[in-house]
Amino acid sequence: MLLRMIDTPDSGASGPTWSFAGACEPADYPAVGVLGVPGVQHAGGTGRTLCGIRGRYLRRFLNLFEPQYPGSCHKCRALAEAAPSRPCGQERLHDLLLRDADDAPLRTDLLAALRRGASIAIWITGPTTDLQSHTRLDLMTEEAGPAAEALAAVGRSVTLARVEDADRQYLVVLPPDGRARIARGAVVPAPAAGR
Ligand SMILES: [Zn+2]
Prior knowledge:
Blueprint: E1 4-7, E2 30-34, E3 37-43, E4 58-64, H1 74-82, H2 89-100, H3 105-115, E5 119-127, H4 128-135, E6 140-142, H5 144-153, E7 157-165, E8 168-174, E9 181-186
Antiparallel strand pairs: 1-5, 2-3, 2-4, 5-7, 6-9, 7-8, 8-9
Helix pairs in contact: 2-3
The structure holds zinc ion.
């Protein structure tokens, strides 16, 4: 299973004060230990800890590095706390769409929704066969065809995002080497006629 959850659903705290800057997330690091030095946790960087210990002596824990944990390395703590925060999910998706989706009315609307703090219900990368149930293509009433085609054309890994904005939701399908497709529909199915 290659599913990777990039963002968990958030509360979609939209409102007049919502902004990308105000929604920054603290930078996080995996916790790592050093062979022969039990009890001390370091912040994992790329192939080494933040404090500079090299990869082959390290083993990775499943939890994230917690600067305030009593057993945390002091140097890693200082560096982790000084690290710049990273942009929120909405800002990262916004910038990805600016780069990887063609300029079109749906993209314009989705970018505006993200700037208002619309909730990212799911943002996931994995094999298309595993992701079909997350698409809610049945609810998409605009541009559903191209999104379905992008899904069908990709036999391997694809990135999906669903964004919920008040009464509408957007589906983004991003093939690994293509342009992102955006579809839009209602959040809940329209009541069937005659029932
Ligand atoms: Zn350290």
